Amino acid sequence: MAQLSDGFLQIGPHRTYYKIIGPDRPSKPPLLTLHGGPGGGHNYLLSLAALATDRQVIFYDQLGCGRSDQPDDESLWTVSTFIDELTAVREQLGLDRIHLLGQSWGGMLAIDYLLTEPAGVLSVILASSMISLPLYQEEVEKLKRDLPPEVYAVMTKHEQAGTTGEKAYWEQFATFDKRHIFRGEVYPAEYQLAKGGFGASVYHSMWGASEAYADGSLREWDRIAELSRITVPTLITSGQYDELTPRQALIAHREIAGSRIEIFTAASHCVHHERPEEYNQVVREFLDEVEAGRD
Questions:
Q1: Which residues pair with 206 in a beta bridge?
Q2: What pLDDT shows up at residue 187?
Q3: In a structure prediction context, what are the per-residue pLDDT tens digits for the chain, which is 295 residues long?
Q4: Is residue 104 annotated as a catalytic residue, yes or no?
Q5: Which of 123, 242, 273, 295 is catalytic?
Q6: 128, 286 contact by CB (below 8 A)
Q7: Per the confidence metrics, is the pTM higher than 0.85?
Q8: Residue 93 is assigned to a structural domain of this protein
Q9: Residue 104: CB partners within 8 Å, gap ≥ 6?
Q10: How many CA atoms lie within 13 A of 222 on its CB side?
Q11: Cα gap 164→158, rounded to integer Å
């Protein structure tokens, strides 16, 4: 599938890298994707490029990671920074009408963006998206308690001591990763080829120590009470073994009127890579239904 264009957008003093896959189809509004992290980079979402047979799929590296600028200024790492960046991306690329997909932290960003009531968002896909970090941490604690006792003991010891940077922690964290983040044998090449690298500064500032221990500035972020304000057609996806547990996805489904939910069996947080064809088909059908006015 040919890449149509990529480049950099000048947003204030910083540059944001973007990539557009597929030709413009006026009758099919593009899908704009928001990656996770914060700091994850767009590369791990590239399996969604298969959707460009129907419409343009647009990716960008949020400030602080990938090929975008990575300023040494932790005061920038706030939700408002990324809402402003998303607004500017739409303006500069002329994205008047879009479908929006946010994965993990990207879904959190999508929720807060929608709460600003932007024009032209036709639908949203909350892909393994947190809705409350206190709830997320409660659910992750349950997942950790189901790990082998020695794994749980080492992880908890380092999390409580603030020593999660040590090798021993990450050796045990690999078990959590394998069960709840990516259940494949080897991470796809897209994960290993991120140009510019992972945004460690923004991740540790906003999210925290690890996927299993969110102790950054977002730790009290909770939007459950505001989900009812989302009125655009919504698809909620999660995996059976996802760190974003089905319980959390079901709460989002309950709170967002008319939303659709899809829980993928035997899948985890990166279901879009574990089951790409099935996942993309679910997304494709949802977008087609929204555009046909059936959602």
A1: none
A2: 76
A3: 456 799 999 999 999 999 999 988 889 999 999 999 999 999 999 999 999 999 999 999 999 999 999 999 999 999 999 999 999 999 999 999 999 999 999 999 999 999 999 999 999 999 999 999 999 999 999 999 999 999 999 999 999 999 999 999 999 999 999 999 999 887 777 666 556 689 999 999 999 999 999 999 999 999 999 999 999 999 999 999 999 999 999 999 999 999 999 999 999 999 999 999 999 999 999 999 999 986 4
A4: yes
A5: 242
A6: no
A7: yes
A8: yes
A9: 35, 36, 37, 40, 127, 128, 129, 130, 244, 269
A10: 9
A11: 5
Residue 130's Cα: distance from chain center in Å? 9
Q: Domain range holding 249?
A: 3-132+188-291
Burial 186-209 (b: 16+ CB within 10 A, else e): eebebbeebebebbebbbbbbbbb
Q: Are strands 57-60 and 14-21 parallel, antiparallel or unpaired?
A: antiparallel
Pairing of strands 31-34, 14-21: unpaired
Could you tell me which of 140, 126, 132, 174 has the C-alpha nearest to residue 272? 126
229 in any annotated domain: yes
The residue annotated as part of the active site, out of 68, 104, 132, 268, is: 104
Of these residues, 42, 204, 269, 272, which one is catalytic? 269
In DSSP terms, 96 is beta-bridged to: none
Residue 151 placed within a domain:
no
CATH number at residue 26: 3.40.50.1820
For residue 222, give the DSSP letter. Answer: B
> Which residue is it, tokens 């008319």?
258
Write the CB contacts of 29 (distance below 8 Å, at least 6 apart in sequence). 55, 97, 98, 99, 122, 291
Q: Is residue 8 part of a domain?
A: yes
27 carries an active-site annotation: no
Structurally, the chain folds into a number of domains equal to 1
SS3 of the chain: helix, strand, coil, percent, to 5: 45, 20, 40
Known active-site residue 6 = no
